[in-house]
Amino acid sequence: MRPPLPGSLRLRFLLAITLWVVLGVGAIWFSAVGIFRTHVERSYHEELEVHVRELGRLTALAPDGRIVLTRPLSDPRYEEPLSGFYWQVTADGRAPLKSGSMTRGSLDEHIAHSPEILHTLDNGPTGPAITYGFTRTGPRGEDIHFVIATDQRELDRLVNSFTRDLTLWLVGLGALLLATGLAIIGFGLHPLDRLSRAIGRLRQGEAVELEGRYPVEIAPLAADLNAYIRQNSDMIARARVQAGNLAHSLRTPLAIITDEAERLAERPDSAAAGQVLLDQAGAMEQQIEYQLARARSSAGQPASGRTTRLPDVALPILKAMERLHPGKHFRLAVGGCSGTALPVDPVDYAELLSILLDNAGKWASAEVVLAFTCAADGAITATISDDGPGIPAPELARVFDLGVRLDPAVPGSGLGLAIARDLAATLGLRLDLTNRAQGLMAEVRFTP
Length: 448
Ligand SMILES: Nc1ncnc2c1ncn2[C@@H]1O[C@H](COP(=O)(O)OP(=O)(O)O)[C@@H](O)[C@H]1O
Ligand SMILES: [Mg+2]
Hints:
Helices cover about 50% and strands about 20% of the residues. By secondary structure, the chain is an alpha+beta fold. The structure holds adenosine-5'-diphosphate and magnesium ion. Its EC number is 2.7.13.3.
């Protein structure tokens, strides 16, 4: 799975789920530890109360006045030295009796100062201890103090080991929840991934519309986009046809005007006016030819969704060029581009190559080379080089203008490069002319 990009839906969901899991697991941890501690404390206190009662029951006074137990307490931990479980019985004027575990220190007998069982947290022989005690009156009217204590750390140890286990378990659960959360995000966003792939194919020219079925939330979006794409390409096609029709319809009236202007130019009294008319009619004719060529180039073709195969697109053009420019040799260098699909309209692209190859053929002295190069970053370049005179540097920018021809001796209309520049702009390609040591090089570059 790809790491989510900044600003992506995936990252939003991931953050939300992480927060949700951390809060949920944290709340469970906090409350579980609290509840467990309360439970353990309660059962500890109950146990101690039972033990101090047992101590009271088992204590007796021997005939010689000593305090004795009729039998040991049922819990063996009271006999293990410094085990954390202690008891003690004291009375004024008698030797105190202590549990076998209390090999040093003693418990504070003042905790036991009433016949009722009382408890407190006190210092025991081995640290803070939960202490229970009560008193009973002896045969001489003296107080006998029964005290029993358990180290606080025993309780802490139990709670800590529970907390450790719980933490491990909850971390595992949290990881599992996050993993399922990721899977859910992937599953939920899958249609969007499909949509973005479909848009990619559309841009690459591998599809003419968004393909596939989408969930109801985004289906209208896909449908709207498809409708928009169709409408757009219909509109472009219609506009081209209309421009073509308009240019066509102007041709005949223009021919009549030219005819009339020629007649005026022949008459001495109107020669100047006739010449002006002739020049203007010439300019109009150029515009018409240009618009007709543009309309021909991809009229009726969908604006997107087509790819150009390399080098196949060039083969018929090169054959035509060899017939058109006999005596010039046209060479093709495919580089690493064999079978490459260029995501542009093939009709327009072929037209663009034709214009540049035709120019190169006209001005080359012997050879024209069409070379394709495909870079690793997806850039695809076509270069058309000839061994002709090239173009004087100051004219390089001007030759793209409508009707500009530098060499009137060579037949032409001056429209070729203007159309080429237009085509390149429509196709999103970069068109550059540069002079080489010998001849001109035209470069058509596609960058993804
Ligand atoms: N390969 C080339 N070598 C030298 N000059 C060129 C070349 N291509 C174009 N030109 C110059 O640019 C001018 C404009 O070219 P273009 O627009 O195709 O019109 P046309 O080919 O009809 O003359 C040409 O008249 C020519 O002077
Ligand atoms: Mg030309």
